[in-house]
Amino acid sequence: MELTGTMEQPWWQRLARLSLRLRGWKLVGKLPPTRKYLIVGAFHTTNWDFPIALAIMGGLGIRPRWIGKDSLFRGAMGGVMHRLGGIPVVRGARRNFVAQVVDLYNRSHKLVIAIAPEGTRRFVDHWKTGFYYIALGAKIPIAFGFADYPRRVCGVGGYFTPSGDPDADLDVLRAFYADKVGKFPHQQGTIRFLPRKRASG
């Protein structure tokens, strides 16, 4: 469904929706009826996806929380990244990180984190598995975040609860994203996981 603004919304939510409208985007939202879930953001093909993702979450009334490589949180910009809701990831410790994020969900009354499973804006032939095992371990829904550039439609288009069968759950993800197109389609990652023994997270 398309969302319309109301005066009951806080100023930052109205501002986020206005920023999207001024850029020609239509915001849609079909959110899980829970206080804790994970948003998959696809397809990630440009640096512009980041400010659009922040505007989507703000426009939907969600406090932005996202995961980024630890180098983004160093130096003068580190404080800004934290204030924007960033959670740093230490490279080489992804499996441990999954357990830490599951624990964070279990200890939180309300938490929504957005993850780009491609892990890069360049083409990759598989998605990283971290988001999936976080959702599975925390027993939370996965919501479909997207920015369809040709149609200028963005938002959250639904959700599902992972079953523990990766093949079946990937089919659900493929079905939703089949008609979604990133800014640079040739850089869209393939929606599949590496075999478990080779997966890097």
In short:
With 201 residues, this protein is of the alpha/beta class. It has helices at residues 11-22, 49-59, 78-83, 94-107, 130-138, 166-177; strands spanning 26-30, 36-42, 66-69, 86-89, 111-115, 142-148, 153-160. Helices cover 32% and strands 20% of the residues.
Question: Would you kindly provide a written description of the structure presented here, covering whatever features stand out?
Answer:
- The protein is of the alpha/beta class.
- The protein has one domain (11-186).
- 32% of the residues lie in helices and 20% in strands.
- The chain has 6 helices and 7 strands; from the N terminus they run αββαβαβαβαββα.
- The protein has helices spanning 11-22, 49-59, 78-83, 94-107, 130-138, 166-177; strands spanning 26-30, 36-42, 66-69, 86-89, 111-115, 142-148, 153-160.
- A hairpin with a 4-residue loop joins strand 6 and strand 7.
- Helix 1 (11-22) crosses helix 2.
- The longest helix is centred in the middle third of the chain and has 14 residues, at 94-107.
Binned strand content: 15-25%
Radius of gyration: 16 Å
Q: What proportion of the residues is helical, as a percent range?
A: 25-40%
Alpha plus pi helix count = 6
Characteristic terms for this protein:
two-stranded parallel sheet, 32% helix, five-stranded mixed beta sheet, single chain, alpha/beta, 201 residues, globular
